[in-house]
Specification:
Layout: H1 8-20, E1 49-54, E2 60-65, H2 71-77, E3 96-99, H3 101-104, H4 112-118, E4 128-130, E5 143-146
Parallel strand pairs: 1-5
Antiparallel strand pairs: 1-2, 3-4, 3-5
């Protein structure tokens, strides 16, 4: 049977490169803050859209954003507590948000996939949407979005 040989030098090189490039030596995943991922576009001067998030503790945070940014990217890019476990692929409900009723009709109707995921969301309301499926447009300038008190992240291990 083949047994790989790991020399002391190989181990030091591996750990050294992991530290040098800020990688997790076990998972080999880079640990880079979200703000460096490039999801958010910087708004052009005079074309800024405004969005206000109401956090779980009731504080309001307003941001200038560009047209086309998703609510999930805006929240994560500004360090708000929105998980987005599926990475914005509409496969979970952890980016559930509650849209201000004044703006709800300005957003396109949710598709079947989004409605299926919304059925799993905690604290569902009439104006609930997934943040990964709502994109900023000029008619949403000034929108207010509330983050629910909790989120529900179902995993396959929950069904064992």
């Amino acid at each position: 049977m083949f047994k790989p040989v790991l020399t002391k030098r190989m181990a030091l090189n591996y750990l050294g490169s992991a530290i040098k490039y800020r990688h997790n030596p076990v998972l080999r995943l880079p640990r880079i803050p979200v703000r460096f991922h490039g999801h958010l576009k910087k708004p052009n001067p005079g074309e800024e859209l405004h969005i206000t998030f109401i956090t779980k503790d009731g504080t309001q945070k307003t941001f200038d954003v560009a047209e086309g940014d998703s609510l999930l990217d805006i929240a994560q890019g500004n360090h708000l507590d929105m998980e987005g476990a599926c990475g914005g692929s509409c496969a979970c409900s952890t980016c559930h948000v509650i849209i201000d009723p004044e703006f709800y009709d300005e957003i396109p109707e949710p598709d079947d996939d989004e409605n299926d995921m919304l059925d799993l969301a905690f604290g569902l309301t009439e104006t609930s949407r997934l943040g990964c499926q709502v994109f900023m447009k000029k008619n949403l300038d000034g929108i207010r979005v509330a983050l629910p008190a909790m989120t529900r992240n179902l995993q396959s291990s929950d069904f064992d």
